[in-house]
């Protein structure tokens, strides 16, 4: 079974590591509504608090070499209209390891009594490591030098932009986390005629609204779309309920990919814990036990009123 799992992974990532590859995509999240900073720099400082987030995702559990993602981020407002954020993400899949790190700045202007429009920029770097020696079966045979792929922590700069409009009940954001396209070449090859991997531009659109159904119940539907050249449009639809400002429960659907369940608990005014489970709706479901995602968020508020009226995003 292990050899079969590796073979499945090889088929999944072959497109990523060849010159006819489909586009490389950013890390995927089910609970993106709590991890907005990773995809939109204009979100920095919008929560009016120092906010720290740690998120871990294990995708396609039971499939050897399946993707694993770990993200840590921190953000805080600076004065009245500015915000700053820091984000580090480590993403592993089969024979590749990627690390993203960036700093985010935002500037917000007040458009209405309750609404602000923020503009954000993101600058940082990306490290890519590919070593086919991690594979011991299939077409990547360590004893066959012609089949080896090797990229040793190749650095590439990153620069992204975003806009984010928000009120206490509504948000709408568009962003491009990295507008620079970079070709990575196999450093074990004597020829640079074809690239091993290529960074592609990822375009995001996200929106959501919080409906007060009662004094103790808030309903928030949300939408995230992601477009990458060479890949199908990804659409995530989710619906969450916040009960007594403490317990969150919801579900999500990733178009033609997965169904998800989400739960969260506001342990204290400062600390929140969340969990999500994805069940594949594709043929890949027969080879894995689903995907799991955990996050922990810690916040410090300067304004006591902000604690009494928490925003749902």
Report what the structure shows.
The structure is a single chain. The chain is mainly β. About 5% of the residues lie in helices and about 50% in strands. The protein contains two helices and 17 strands. The protein has helices at about 1-15, 305-310, and strands at about 50-60, 70-80, 80-95, 95-110, 115-130, 150-165, 170-175, 185, 195-200, 200-210, 210-215, 215-230, 235-245, 245-255, 260-265, 270-280, 290-300. The strands form two sheets. A 14-stranded antiparallel β-barrel has the order 1-2-3-4-5-6-7-10-12-13-14-15-16-17. The radius of gyration is 20 Å and the shape is globular. The model is unreliable at about 15-25 (pLDDT under 50).
State the gist of this model.
With 313 residues, this protein is mainly beta.
Q: SSE layout and pairings?
A:
Blueprint lengths: L1 H12 L35 E10 L9 E11 L3 E12 L2 E15 L5 E16 L18 E17 L3 E7 L6 E2 L12 E2 L3 E8 L1 E4 L2 E12 L5 E10 L3 E8 L3 E9 L4 E10 L10 E11 L2 H5 L5
Antiparallel strand pairs: 1-2, 1-17, 2-3, 3-4, 4-5, 5-6, 6-7, 7-10, 8-9, 10-12, 11-12, 12-13, 13-14, 14-15, 15-16, 16-17
Identify the notable features of this structure and list them briefly.
single chain, 313 residues, mainly beta, two-stranded antiparallel sheet, 17 strands, 5% helix, 52% strand, globular
In terms of DSSP E residues, the strand content is over 45%
Class from helix and strand fractions: mainly beta
What's the helix count? 2
How much is the radius of gyration in Å?
20 Å
Strand arrangement, major sheet = 1-2-3-4-5-6-7-10-12-13-14-15-16-17
Overall 3D form: globular
* Proportion of residues in helical segments: under 10%
Write down the overall mean pLDDT.
84
Distance between the termini: 42 Å
Low-confidence parts lasting 5 or more residues at pLDDT below 50?
13-23
User: How many β-strand runs?
Assistant: 17
Biggest β-sheet description: 14 strands, antiparallel, barrel
N-to-C order of helices and strands? HEEEEEEEEEEEEEEEEEH
């Amino acid at each position: 079974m292990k050899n079969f799992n590796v073979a499945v992974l090889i088929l999944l990532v072959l497109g990523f590591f060849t010159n006819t590859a489909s586009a490389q995509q950013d890390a995927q999240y089910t609970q993106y509504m709590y991890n907005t900073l990773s995809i939109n720099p204009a979100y920095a400082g919008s929560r009016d608090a120092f906010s720290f987030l740690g998120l871990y995702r294990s995708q396609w559990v039971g499939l050897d070499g399946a993707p694993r993602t770990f993200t840590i981020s921190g953000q805080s407002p600076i004065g009245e209209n500015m915000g700053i954020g820091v984000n580090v993400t480590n993403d592993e899949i089969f024979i590749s390891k990627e690390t993203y790190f960036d700093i985010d700045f935002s500037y917000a202007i007040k458009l209405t009594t309750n609404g602000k429009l923020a503009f954000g920029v993101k600058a940082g770097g990306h490290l890519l490591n590919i070593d086919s020696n991690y594979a011991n079966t299939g077409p990547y045979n360590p004893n066959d030098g012609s089949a080896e792929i090797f990229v040793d922590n190749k650095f590439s700069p990153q620069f992204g932009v975003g806009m984010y409009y928000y009120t206490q009940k509504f948000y709408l954001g568009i962003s491009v986390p990295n507008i620079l396209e970079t070709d990575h070449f196999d450093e074990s090859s004597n020829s640079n005629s074809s690239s091993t991997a290529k960074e592609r531009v990822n375009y995001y659109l996200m929106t959501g609204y919080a409906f007060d159904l009662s004094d103790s119940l808030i309903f928030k539907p949300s939408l995230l779309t992601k477009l990458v050249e060479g890949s199908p449009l990804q659409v995530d639809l989710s619906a969450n309920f916040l009960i007594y400002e403490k317990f969150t429960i919801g579900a999500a659907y990733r178009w033609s990919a997965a169904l998800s369940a989400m739960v969260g608990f506001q342990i204290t005014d400062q600390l929140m814990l969340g969990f999500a489970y994805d069940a594949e709706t594709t043929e890949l479901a027969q080879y894995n036990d689903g995907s799991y995602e955990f996050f922990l968020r810690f916040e410090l508020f300067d304004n006591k009123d902000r604690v009494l009226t928490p925003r749902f995003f």
